[in-house]
Automatic annotation (TrEMBL):
Keywords noted in UniProt: DNA-binding, Transcription, Transcription regulation
GO molecular function: DNA-binding transcription factor activity; transcription cis-regulatory region binding
Domain of life: Bacteria
SUPFAM superfamilies, sorted: lambda repressor-like DNA-binding domains, Periplasmic binding protein-like I
Signal peptide (UniProt feature, chain positions): none
Protein name: DNA-binding LacI/PurR family transcriptional regulator
Entry keyword Lyase: no
Organism: Novosphingobium hassiacum
Key word Transcription regulation present: yes
Amino acid sequence: MTTRTAITLADLAKIAGVSVATVSRSLAGNTVIAEATRTRIVALAQEHGFQVNQAARNLRLKRTGAIGVVLPLGHEAEQHLSDPFFMSLLGPLADAIADRGHDLLLSRVIPNDDRWLDAIVDGGRVDGLIVIGQSNQIEVIERVARRYRPMIVWGAGTPGRAQLTVGTDNVAGGRMAAEHLLAQGRTRLAFFGNTDVPEFAARYDGFEQALRQAGSGKATLLPVHLTSESSYSAIEDYLGGHPSPDGIVAASDVIAMSALRALAVHGKRVPQDVSVVGYDDVLLATHTTPPLTTVRQDVARGAKLMVDMLFRRMEGGEVQSVAMQPELILRGSA
C-alpha cells in the first residue's frame, strides 16, 4: 500500500476531511480548534511528511514566531539571570512557549530612560511580551500596556491599571508569614526587603497588617529594606549595630538565605534564637541550614498561566489578571 504524501495544505485538508483553515490553525496550535482535532491533524501531517514553511507563514501572517521575555532591573542593576527565582520561572516559561511552537527571546534590561519598553514592543522582533517583575518601572510598563495588548506581567496587580498581571496575592503572603511568627510567640519582628519593588511593598503591607491586628504592644516592627547580592553585608551590618529581632520575614528566599548566614556569623541560632521566613520557595530553600520555612509561589502554574493568557490576547481574546494564593511551607527555620 502506497502512502500519499501531502504537498500542500489543501492536500492535507482533503486527507483529514476538514477545511484548509482548520488544518492551518491546527498546525499553528490555535486553541480555537478542539484539541482532539489538532492532535489528529498534527499526526496526519507527520505521517504524510508535511512540514509548514514557517518563515513564509510568519511573513504572510506578519508574525515573528518569537515571544519576548524581559527582566527589567531598574531597582537592582547587579541582579543576574542566575538569580534562583528567575531561574525557577524561566524554565517553565521556556517549556510553555516552546509547546506553542514559538521561540523565546530573552532580554535583561537595565533601564536608562523611560522608552526602553517602547523600543522592545516596537522593534518588530516578537509577537508578544512577558515582563518578569515590575521593578521600579511600573509606570513605564503601565504606559505601554495602554497601547500594546499582547503583554503579560509577572508582578503585583493593582485595580484600575491596564497591565495584565499574574502573581501571588503578596499581601496575603506577607500577612501569613508574620502571623506564623507571632503564633510562635515572636515579639521583635523585622521585615527585610526593598519596598521600592511593588511585590515587596505588598508583602510588607501584609506584614504590617498582621502586626496591627496583633496589637502594637505585642510586637516591635523593625523594617529593613534590603535586596540582591548586597543583602548579606547589609544584614550583617544591621545585626552588628542593632538588637537582634527574634523573627524575620524576608521579601525573598535569597534575602532569607543571606539572613541565615549573617545570623550565624553573629552567633544566633535559627530557629532557637531567631525564626526566619522567606518568600518564593526556590529549589535552594530545601538545602539551607536549617531548611527554609517560606511562602511558596507556584511559579510553574504562573508560567503556564502567563503563556496561556498571552496567546489568548494575541488571538484577540479577553483575559483578566490572576492573583494566585500563596502557601506557607513549614521547614526548620521557623
